[in-house]
Amino acid sequence: MTEIAADLIAMAPAPDRLRGEGRKTAISAAADRIATPNVDPRDFDAALLGLFARGRRSSAVTLATLSAIFAAIALTWIEVDAVVTWLCVSLAAQILTQLIARRFPQQDLSHADTRRWRRDFIVTETIQGAIFALLVALVGHAEDPAALACAVVMGLLIAAMNATISPSIPAAAAGGMAPVALAMLSLLWEAHLAEGAAQMIVLGFGAQLCFLMLARKLYASALEALSFQSEKDDLIAELEQSKANSDLARRRAEEANLAKSHFLATMSHELRTPLNAILGFSEVMKGELFGAHIVASYKEYSNDIHASGHHLLMLINEILDLSRIEAGRLELKEEAVALDHIVEDCRHLLALRAKKRGVTINEAVEPDLPRIRADERAVRQMTLNLLSNAVKFTPPGGSVRIRIGWTASGGQYLAMRDSGPGIPAEEIPIVMSSFGRGALARKNAEEGSGLGLPIVKGLVELHEGTFILKSNVGEGLEAIVIFPASRIIPPGAGLDMDLGAARQRRRARREARQVP
């Protein structure tokens, strides 16, 4: 149906599809960038400086406490005045670092600003490292092996603190650890060191190098985390844009669907009005109600006009039915329906057509089937569509077998199997789509619009049922309609009636119609 209305309703499918493909490409590219990030430190200078500033602000109390502990331990080997002076200088340097860190702006910075802030942080870290290195040197020069061990431990603690607090600026971390490493090297030249002291200092110096490498690793991890965060933000932005475009496309599709429904409703009225006149006048001309035709061909033309008009009216009705089903606007008028009665009526309607084609219709119905809760008109339409298809595609001398019975889950099924050529498995999705026709139907130019099976499928789904096609090429096609157990009306439920009496009344009415 969309194909019919494509020239009259502005659906704009191509741009939407292109935009959808573009969004998929953008999202895939963002996912690839996250999987294999290409990190450039210059892209994250301000973010790295921000990490450093936050780290310094959060470690103020820890560094002050560590300085106080170092000063208290140093009192064992150094005079009080020197220790107090060192502690004041150390705390002043830390206060300076805190002031600079707290003044660091949160907004984006220019390249010149980032260079200035990085320089300030490196200078303050180097000053703090030099102050700690002074204490390490003073303690290590004491004439006591325990003092040397204490100095080495102090150096390791300082290196550990710098490696964990300052990794986002590698130069600042190196500036904080380099003075302590130099102080340890200066202790190594002292001749009065006790036995094993040199090995201890070398071990401490090597640990400094390890902490420096750790700082480099943490710096790389910070870069990668920032890269992931940036790519994630880009992906979220693209997804939000995709969602907005999708909502817009959905609204356009809903508007197009409303326009299509309005178009079909209008066209059905405009087409049915002249069609009624065509069918009525052609029937009068075909029946020669006002006298015989002078030219015999006129009667044949009248028959053709009537048949074509009837076919066009049927096509319009099918299109409208499928449109209502697809739009979810077909309301079922549910009542108690005897499936075998409807099948028997439909079989009688198509008996003459089957006889002309030399097709035999066999019926097998399980006894005592209760009624089902369904729309009688919809069930009748499903049955007529399936049975007419079976008769149409069954070759002369073939047969159509109709079966009605119970399913394993307690529902009822209607199955129709013909002895025709069947449909290849790859063509089943085609014939189930709107206006879809199999290769055999196109080859033989079989009459039909390709809407029968889609309408059956839609009506079955409205009844919460299942529609199945089974086909073997050269052996025939079987169409199965399954109604769920929830639609079975138990006998004596108030909606049931005497099915035997109803069947007899139907048979009597048919026999009365056949009597000349």
TrEMBL record:
GO terms for molecular function: histidine phosphotransfer kinase activity; phosphorelay sensor kinase activity. It comes from the Bacteria. The keyword Coiled coil applies. GO terms for cellular component: plasma membrane. It is an enzyme of class 2 (transferase). InterPro entries: HATPase_C_sf, HATPase_dom, His_kinase_dom, HisK_dim/P_dom, HisK_dim/P_sf, Sig_transdc_His_kin-like_C. Residues 225-259 form a coiled coil. Its EC number is 2.7.13.3. It catalyses: ATP + protein L-histidine = ADP + protein N-phospho-L-histidine. Residues 266-487 form the Histidine kinase domain. The chain crosses the membrane at residues 60-78, 84-101, 121-140, 146-165, 172-191. PROSITE patterns: HIS_KIN. Keywords: Coiled coil, Kinase, Membrane, Phosphoprotein, Transferase, Transmembrane, Transmembrane helix. This is histidine kinase. It comes from Methylocella silvestris.
